[in-house]
Amino acid sequence: MIEISNLVKNYGSKFAVDDISFKVGKGEIVGFLGPNGAGKSTTMNILTGYLSSTSGTAKVGGIDILENPYEAKKLIGFLPEQPPVYPDMTVNEYLNFVYEIKRCKLHREKHLAEIRQVTKIEDVKTRLIKNLSKGYRQRVGIAQALVGNPPIIIFDEPTVGLDPKQIIEIRNLIRNLGQTHTVILSTHILTEVQAVCDRIIIINEGKIIADERTENITKVVEENRRYSVKICGPQRDVLSAIREIPGVVYAEITGERELDSYTFHVEAEKGLDIRKPLFHAMSQRNWPIIGLEPIGMNLEEVFVKIMDADLARKKA
Amino acid sequence: MFAIYKKEMRTYFTTPLGYVFIAVFLAVSGFLFAVSTMQLQTSDISGYFQMMIFGYIVILPLLTMRSFAEERRTKTEQILMTSPVSITGMVMAKFLAAFTMFFATVLVSCLYYIPLTGYTEYPNYGKAAGCFIAMLLIGMCFIAVGIFVSTLTESPVTASIGTMGILIGFAGAALFNGLIDSYVIRYILSWISVYSRYVNFTYGMFDIAATVYYISITAIFLFLAIRIYERRRYA
Asked: Could you please report the per-residue DSSP string of B150-163?
């Protein structure tokens, strides 16, 4: 549905987007991840025809956005970083305006009522947009993108300014949309991508540094295996005993304490399972292990790791 | 395009702008009208229109200052630019909306002419009509300039002041021709001047050259506005 190849956008010598290529298939939900100023919004703006690219092509549904913007734009619903709402209109007036400007052919009343319902703005439909809270405005922005039921939906930071309950609702909405639409969303909230997206594209300084299925993203970074262990025994002696186990590269006392047991963080060499040697070492000294759990890497850490690795690659 | 036109018209009346424009326009024109015709006991309205050109300089930027500047400031232009609407359509819609407001208000101000018919037995309707059409053309020019300046900035205030600046240049170019010795400079200044070109209408002539000039100026500034928007995409 979406095909971006060798896209470049520069402002003088500053490259906002530097040679990125990717494809998005029908029904995929892709998360665009990156720090501020990474080029997420620029890429989305090019894809929706708001900006032009310096070189490279962006195609939606097989149509080049620069060559045939009129047809291409019909396929896209776009929520920019700031919801493009007119403060002096009521929600209903605004949605009707969007309906007209997009030359929507669906049954007007039914279609708009449906959108108001899924975005939960039915109760504010007669209010002026300038009097709405940030969360409601954001939802009106989302509603706007859904008008005309376009097959491709692009959201630039859709959950900014929403409260936690609304965030969950919007995420569910996006997931539902993903069953019938192609969705691209950008965010810097990593749990959001994890919760919603099938695929993650991480970009930094205008370049793609990772493009993976969500469940695989943690595998992108090879990492030592870490455990959190609860052991009953004298704190310092236990620590030095753990450190003596071959394969352990790092161990520390976390300071957590439960009756006579202490929690330690243990990190093992890559590809080595230290759980058995740890058990034997402790049982020899008669210090029972009462808890052992792996510490998985969350996306935040993966993200930082990928960024660091990228930085290191550049220096080398 | 029609959707944008409708939206613009609605915005004039859901914000104070439209009402302020109509009130100020009618107040200024009413005052000038009274001074230039009734006080002089004449039915010749060409003098009134001559003064109104300078009234337009102050009033018409009010109509156009917001059109693009406000959209850019609130980032609502993004929905226009990412919808299936051409840039030309967008600029024309906003121009036509501003012109509609202007035209409607001018029509209302036509009520002033009714009492004048009492001053003479044979009012010169032809001349009045010519002047009236010329004023519409001049207003159209000024609106096009305003639309153009509005695409250049994010601030409506800057847009209106900038528009006034350009309009003063256009209307006032030949005002001080009497003080200039060089024929060439005088010729160029009166060529540019919207005001000098209007003079023929006050003699009761329908000046085709001036009409072409007014329409050209309008077309040039609208074209520039479109180009500015296209260029911004590529910037």
From this structure: HHH-S-HHHHHHHH
CB nearest to A50's CB, from B4, B14, B82: B82
Residues with Cβ within 8 Å of A222's Cβ and at least 6 positions away in sequence, in order, are: A270
Over range A30-53, report the average pLDDT: 87
- What whole-number distance in Å separates Cα of residue B229 and Cα of residue B88? 9
Contact A11 B233 (CB under 8 A): no
Among B10, B74, B84, the residue with its CB nearest the CB of A103 is: B84
A137 within 8 A of A85, measured Cβ to Cβ: yes
Establish if B183 touches chain A: CB-CB under 8 angstroms: no
Q: Stretch B5-24: mean pLDDT, rounded? A: 92
B18 secondary structure, DSSP code? H
Residues of A with CB under 8 A from a CB of B: 11, 48-52, 69-71, 73-74, 76, 78, 80-82, 84-89, 93, 97-98, 100-103, 144
C-alpha to C-alpha distances, A45 to A41, A64, A253, B189, nearest whole angstrom: 6, 14, 49, 45
Residue A14's H or E segment, with its range, is: strand A14-24
Q: What is the pLDDT of residues A217-274, one digit of tens each?
A: 766 555 667 788 899 888 888 888 888 888 888 888 887 787 888 888 888 877 777 8
Q: Is B91 exposed, middle or buried (0-12, 13-18, 19+ CB in 10 A)?
A: buried
Q: How many residues does chain B have?
A: 235
Place of tokens 């009129």: A70
Q: Which of residues 85-104 of B touch A (CB under 8 A)?
A: 85-86
**Cα of B207 vs its chain's centroid, Å:** 18
Instruction: Report domain extents, chain B.
Output: 2-234
Question: Would you call A100 and B76 a contact, using CB atoms and an 8 Å cutoff?
Answer: no
Contact A144 B14 (CB under 8 A): no
B33-88 pLDDT, tens digit per residue, is 888 888 887 777 888 888 888 889 999 999 999 899 999 998 898 999 888 888 99
- Radius of gyration in angstroms for the set of CA atoms belonging to chain B, rounded to a whole number: 19
Chain B residues with CB under 8 Å of A144 CB are 79
Closest by CA position to A34, among listed A223, A221, A306: A306
* Token duo for residue A54: 């310096």
Of A227-236, A300-309, B121-130, highest mean pLDDT: A227-236
For chain A, domains (ranges, CATH) are 2-220 (3.40.50.300), 225-294 (3.30.70.3190)
CA distance A268 to chain B (A): 52
What is the DSSP code (8-state) at residue A270?
A: T
State the Cα angle at B37 between B31 and B39, rounded to 5°. Answer: 80
* A84, A88, A101: residue with CB nearest B78: A84
DSSP structural state of residue B228 = H
Which residues from A are below 8 Å from B13, CB to CB? none
- This prediction has a pTM of 0.82
